[in-house]
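Researcher: I'm preparing a figure for a lab meeting and need a structural model of a single chain. I don't have an experimental structure, so a prediction will have to do for now. The sequence is pasted below. Please return the structure as tokens so I can convert it later.
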Amino acid sequence: MSPCADNELDANFLASIPIQNPKVVSRRERDETLVFHLNTVRITVLNWVASRIWELCDGKHKVSEIYETLLSEFEVDPKVLEKDLARVFQELKQRDIIVLRSE
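Model: Understood. Here is the structure written out token by token.
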């Protein structure tokens, strides 16, 4: 499931539900979140925007709902948000920090 098709969010990706991998633990530190993968022993530091995305990866929100939430919470161009959201999800998925479940 690819996040982007021609720099736009793919419909299947928008309908997917991101879930935090149960093999990671996280801790909020000021404006960042530290995510520690128990299997790879790798730490990923999320900035404040990625931290908010991480919080919303609770298995209850579709990617499209996360997009709409971020659009309402931050002053950002919708196209910029699409690109950034796809990049963050791709990175989290590559690091095995989240799993994307199909609806």
